[in-house]
Write a structure and sequence with these properties.
316 residues; 8 strands; alpha/beta; 14 helices; 42% helix
């Protein structure tokens, strides 16, 4: 019996040492703001303790395109589009709660509906009346939910590898997402987040290697360590998938679907669900592109967005 307790003590000690060696602490918010904010960054205090990082770029009198990022990403994912579209459009990007330089929301609410509330509060603060809204992955689901709840505000909808469809065969979650659903690992992930895990997860999500550069991996890894962001990540699983009946009101809205044929996170078959639910939607699938068309093929995807907005009368 004493020998058993001795071995347990040794194992516990080894685990404690491993924990101390692998622990990746939070990075102070002020350090991350100094590194990842830009001259265009605004920090909007929407409620006590909740300050949202927003960039509002392009001509003030141009048509507005508001863009919502995906899970564990940030507004930086849209920089390639901002560079290509902001001469003709007023492009608004933001870090949703639990992401980027915004950090956690005091209410602890990370549902699509609460993120829609954040977007609506930003819209009001920026005095935007009507606009096109787009979103990537998780942000796509936030975008179509916003369009359902605030149809009077939305001129057009752009979904980039949007989540929210019933899962189709062929989609595989990156390792980071899979680990986040394991109870014990979930808790460890709040304090132990190796850079190699982020590197592997991002590499699994894209097919164009440049979108998973060392700089991109560092940004994902460091912004995830904004105080409270890792804990918020664990509070965002899961969300209910859409149904065709729920999406039916969007059939009155111009919709563009952009997808990579090599998307291993959300298979292109899920784009077809949205296309069936919204028959008026235009679907563009990019050969050889993974989960982030806005970063993997920025020239083509930005040009397709501009052409679409022109076609539906929202162009700049």
């Amino acid at each position: 019996m004493r020998r058993s307790f001795g071995w347990l003590a040794v194992v516990a000690g080894l685990l404690a040492v491993a924990f101390l060696l692998l622990r990746t602490p939070d990075i102070p918010a002020e350090d991350l703001r100094a590194k990842y904010a830009s001259p265009q960054s605004q920090f909007l205090a929407l409620s006590p303790g909740f300050v949202v990082h927003v960039r509002d770029e392009g001509p003030r009198d141009a048509p507005v395109l508001l863009l919502a990022h995906g899970s564990n990403a940030s507004l930086h994912t849209w920089e390639p589009w901002v560079a290509r579209l902001s001469e003709r459009y007023r492009v608004v990007t933001l870090d949703l709660q639990g992401h980027g330089l915004t950090g956690p929301i005091p209410s602890g609410c990370y549902t699509r509906e609460c993120m829609v509330t954040t977007i609506e509060a930003v819209r009001q603060r920026l005095a935007i009346e009507r606009f096109a809204i787009g979103g990537s992955s998780m942000g796509g689901a936030v975008a179509w939910t916003y369009a359902l709840e605030h149809s009077e505000r939305v001129k057009a909808l752009v979904l980039v590898a949007s989540s929210g469809a019933p899962r189709a065969g062929g989609g595989t979650d990156p390792i980071g997402f899979r680990l986040a659903r394991m109870p014990l690992i979930r808790e460890l992930a709040v304090v132990v987040t190796p850079r190699a895990l982020i590197e592997r997860s991002l590499a699994q999500s894209v097919s164009v290697a440049s979108a998973a550069s060392a700089e991109a991996v560092d940004r994902y890894w460091e912004l995830l360590r904004y105080p409270g962001n890792r804990r918020a990540t664990l509070q965002r699983f899961p969300s209910e998938p859409a149904t065709k009946e729920r999406l039916a009101p969007l059939q009155r809205l111009p919709v563009l679907l952009l997808w990579g044929t090599e998307d291993r996170l959300l298979a292109v078959a899920e784009a077809r669900f949205f296309a069936d639910a919204m028959p008026q939607a235009k679907l563009i699938a990019y050969p050889g592109i993974g989960h982030l068309p806005q970063e993997e093929t920025p020239d083509r995807s930005a040009a397709d967005v501009a052409a679409f907005l022109d076609d539906v009368g929202v162009g700049g």
